[in-house]
Design a protein that fits this description.
- This protein is α+β, with helices and mostly antiparallel strands.
- Among the domains are: 180 residues, BirA Bifunctional Protein, domain 2, CATH 3.30.930.10; 82 residues, Rossmann fold.
- Helix content is 38%, strand content 22%.
- The chain contains 15 helices and 16 strands.
- The strands form three sheets. The protein has an eight-stranded mixed beta sheet with strand order 1-5-6-11-10-9-7-8.
- Strand 15 and strand 16 form a beta hairpin.
- The radius of gyration is 27 Å and the shape is elongated.
- Bound molecules: adenosine-5'-triphosphate (ATP) and magnesium ion (MG).
- The site of magnesium ion (MG) has 2 residues, from loops.
Length: 411
């Protein structure tokens, strides 16, 4: 038997209702807040991710599904299944010159992402993200708008107790000073850092703070190291930005924790970074990650444009939300006259009713048994009903039966 690939999952049956419900809520909340849906391709040029996600990240170094297409004779090109969606949205933003529209330009998306990771609870190779990207606003109100949208969406699916962690990375200038201090303080400990962090030390030293390796964690506990890590290094402008953002969040009643070790996996963040977590998820606790990336559009060849966004893992959300049941049918048509039953089903569905009928003209008792499991009412269409032109309705919750003369009274 051919099976699904490791780290992938079929979604069907009861689960599909919960998925649809999550997606409907996302659409409502984000569209009400003025975000337009954007669907970008699932594969892009490898270079887009190498540059846009950053070549010091785990994603680019270890996790991408990259392959050559076209063969040697045709000058094979390298493409990659998208590991995340910010790079693709930014590519589209630049390609279609969306920058010319008046800001903000606000997008939301939903779709599969691909990362070659070790599958475990909350970690798959094909997983789904829902997220938003907003362009054109440098003010902290945009950061607040994006965080609020994430929090309101989570509330809409019944999750109002998740932990928001917040940090600021500063701007290129103050971030650079901080980088240098981190490098200096870690230099004597370089040998004891994990192999990944030895590599990060040169390419992206801030990422070291985010490392979960025990040896690295121990180094962060050393007093002098800790002092540098927790030192407030950000410049006045970045501090103002952060303070204004936190005031907005306070006014909105959004609780957050400052986490000075939060730096996030991707290379392109500046100023605000945030994560939303649930302790109910165990070690894969992050549901949502986001932040500001004012340099990315320019770095990928567009005009300098401030931007902020987030991405949420839908599978992780799925494990937290209350499961939705299949909605019951309005009617199940119980009839051995398939010709009449199918016509009635068509007419009722055209009136937006949820309706099924028995396609095999089985015995009434069998049909009623099925109907009582999946429908609110049965329409009984026996020979009397058909000949005399009326409908018998059985309410499958109360058992009460009524006679309805006109089709209009069914809708
Ligand atoms: P993690 O530290 O858990 O690997 P990340 O920093 O790689 O997360 P992001 O790139 O920020 O994750 O993606 C945003 C969200 O997407 C995560 O918070 C998580 O909910 C989800 N996510 C990321 N990778 C996976 C995966 N392999 N399987 C399922 N969900 C994932
Ligand atoms: Mg990861």
């Amino acid at each position: 038997m051919i099976k699904a690939q490791r780290g992938t999952k079929d979604i069907f049956g009861e689960e599909s209702y919960t998925w649809q419900w999550i997606l409907n809520n996302a659409q409502n909340v984000f569209q009400n807040a003025g975000f337009q849906e954007i669907k970008t391709p699932i594969f892009e040029a490898t270079e887009l991710f190498a540059r846009g996600v950053g070549d010091s990240t785990d994603i680019v170094n270890k996790e991408m599904y990259t392959f050559q297409v076209g063969g040697i004779e045709k000058n094979a090109t390298s493409i990659t299944l998208r590991p995340e969606n910010t790079a693709g949205v930014v590519r589209a933003f630049i390609e279609h010159n969306i920058v010319r529209q008046s800001p903000p330009q606000k997008f939301w998306y939903f779709g599969p992402m691909f990362r070659y990771e070790r599958p475990q609870a909350g970690r798959q190779r094909q997983f789904h993200q829902v997220g938003v990207e907003m362009f054109g606003i440098k003010e902290p109100s945009a950061d607040a708008e994006v965080i609020m949208s994430a929090v309101e969406f989570l509330k809409s699916v019944g999750l109002d107790n998740l932990e928001v962690e917040l940090n600021t990375l500063g701007c290129p200038k103050c971030k650079n000073d901080y980088r240098n201090s981190i490098k200096e303080i870690l230099k004597p400990h370089l040998e004891n850092l994990c192999d990944d962090c030895k590599m990060r030390y040169e390419k992206n030293p801030l990422r070291i703070l985010d490392c979960k390796n025990e040896d690295c964690q121990k180094i962060f506990e050393i007093k002098e190291v800790k002092n540098v890590i927790l030192n407030d290094y950000i410049c006045d402008e970045c501090k103002d930005h952060f303070d204004t953002l936190t005031k907005y969040l306070d006014d909105l009643g959004i609780k957050y924790q400052r986490n000075k070790l939060l730096v996030r996996g991707l290379d392109y963040y500046n100023r605000t970074v945030f994560e939303i977590k649930s302790s109910a998820l165990g070690s894969q606790s992050a549901v949502c990650g986001g932040g500001r990336y004012d340099g990315l559009v320019e770095m990928l060849g567009g005009a300098s444009t401030p931007a902020v966004g987030f991405a949420m893992g839908v599978e992780r959300l799925f494990t937290l939300v209350e499961k939705q049941e299949a909605p019951k049918l309005d009617y199940f048509i119980v009839s051995t006259n398939t010709k009449e039953a199918i016509k009635l089903a068509q007419k009722l569905r055209q009136q937006n009713k949820k309706v099924e009928f028995d396609m095999q003209a089985r015995k009434f008792a069998k049909q009623l048994e099925k109907a009582s499991k999946i429908a609110k009412n049965a329409i009984i269409l026996g020979e009397d009903e058909i000949n005399q032109g009326f409908y018998s309705i059985k309410n499958l919750e109360t058992g009460e039966q009524t006679k309805i003369e006109k089709f209009e009274n069914l809708i």
